[in-house]
Design brief:
There is one protein chain. Strand 6 and strand 7 form a beta hairpin. It is built from no helices and 36 strands. With 414 residues, the protein is mainly β.
Length: 414
């Protein structure tokens, strides 16, 4: 059965529906929401359909097309990247492509394989960088390289961590780099939002962006009330902004973010949402009311996410603060309905599976919460290893990535 995501919004804005496959970071169109299946409250090792070891380690989340599961990993000693494909039914490795690199500076929570691949019916797209080279590569489903793009140096304090997105035959990459707080003698990076022809790798356009604080935001596609598609992204320098996905022309932007934008945008309840923050705090979330003249509807300060991307149902957004606080927020007003400390730290992002929320903390503990107006923690299960990746859901199965393993858990039909 195909799972479809279609979020219809009162103001005429809608997120673009994508089919059953989990084709990018945070699932269909980056919204992290699936129907027709749910996650068990708890499970044991014997419940997994399969588990398999990965070469190296990484934070890359799995993506799927049909029975093909794609993920990235890396050797933590020499920075060799592994582009990997597995049979989603059995966990068997189908192919592996290695790309040599060299060690370079990373934040202690980052990895040499933090990019989540994007995929479509023909190809899979991976990105990574060293200090002097940023690479975007397309492989067909048999692992043969179709094209490769060299995008120049990558300048940051924390290393590479963004991911591509593919929509309607175009691959998008938010290559927004550091321009502030750099070591003496280091020039600011050159920041662009790129669009490439998915089949040929031809650059279709690039939107120059100001380099201030690094952004890892992955764009999503929405349909505005005029029926036109818009590519929506976030960054410190451009704020919340939208571009024509075919031409790269910026259609609007609101300068609403003061710190880094690591999370990705969410479209829900007739609005667009993004968050900003830092490891030292000062986080806040902004709700944008779209239209002919988009405007800020409200903002919520305090215990909101810096790194995790949020998830929403039709009425509430669920905010997982990096330090282990989860909140339910009214989409219409920003009012906090409930807020609880559930422990641990969070780098991955929550997903809404039916009426349950699945979130995995950095220690590798999977938490299942009931979605709704009252807090209810249904269960906790250890995955056996730390992780900073986001689970994937496709074909009734839930796929986890820990530092060096893949695990496949059957979901429960609804």
């Amino acid at each position: 059965m195909r799972l479809f995501l279609a979020i219809l919004l009162a103001c005429g804005l809608s997120s673009v529906a994508v089919g059953q496959e989990w084709t990018r970071f945070h699932g269909p169109n980056g919204q992290g929401r699936v129907e027709g299946v749910t996650v068990p409250a708890t499970w044991s090792a014997g419940n997994y359909a399969w588990t398999t070891d990965l070469p190296g380690i990484g934070n890359s989340s799995p993506t799927l097309w049909g029975n093909l599961l794609f993920v990235m990993s890396a050797n933590p000693d020499d920075a060799t990247r592994y582009l990997l494909c597995y049979d989603a039914d059995s966990g068997k490795e189908l192919w592996r492509k290695s790309h040599e690199s060299r060690p370079h500076h990373l934040h202690n929570r980052n990895s040499y394989a933090s990019c989540t691949p994007a995929c479509d019916a023909e190809r899979v797209y991976f990105a990574w960088s060293s200090d002097d080279e940023t690479t975007l590569v397309a492989l067909d489903h048999s692992g043969q390289q179709v094209w490769e793009k060299s995008l120049g140096p990558w300048v940051s304090q924390h290393g590479f961590g963004t991911s591509p997105a593919v929509y309607d035959g175009i691959v998008y990459l938010n290559a927004n780099q550091e321009g502030e707080q750099l070591p003496a003698g280091v020039e600011p990076g050159q920041s662009f939002l790129y669009a490439f022809d998915a089949a040929k790798g031809t650059e279709l356009w690039r939107l120059p962006c100001e380099s201030s604080k690094l952004s890892y935001s992955v764009p999503c596609v929405v349909t505005n009330r005029g029926g036109e598609k818009e590519l929506v992204c976030t960054s410190t320098s451009e704020g919340m902004f939208a571009v024509d996905p075919k031409t790269g022309e910026m259609t609007w932007n609101l300068d609403v973010f003061e710190q880094r934008t690591v999370s990705s945008p969410i479209a829900a309840g007739g609005m667009l949402f993004g968050s900003t923050g830092s490891g030292g705090g000062g986080n806040y979330l902004v709700a944008i009311k779209p239209g002919d003249s988009p405007e800020e509807a409200y903002r919520v300060k305090g215990l909101v996410p810096y790194v995790p991307t949020s998830v929403a149902d039709d009425e509430l957004m669920y905010l997982f603060n990096d330090k282990g606080i989860v909140s339910a927020m009214e989409l219409a007003t920003g009012e906090i309905v409930w807020q609880e400390r559930i422990g641990g730290e969070f780098s991955g992002s929550p997903i809404l599976i039916g009426n349950r929320i699945l979130m995995v903390n950095d220690a590798g503990e999977a938490l299942v919460l009931k979605a709704g107006r009252e807090f209810e923690l249904l269960g906790k299960t250890s995955l056996g290893q730390q992780t900073r990746a986001t689970p994937a859901v496709a074909n009734g199965m839930i796929f986890f990535r820990t530092d060096s393993k893949l695990l496949c858990l059957p979901g429960e039909k609804t």
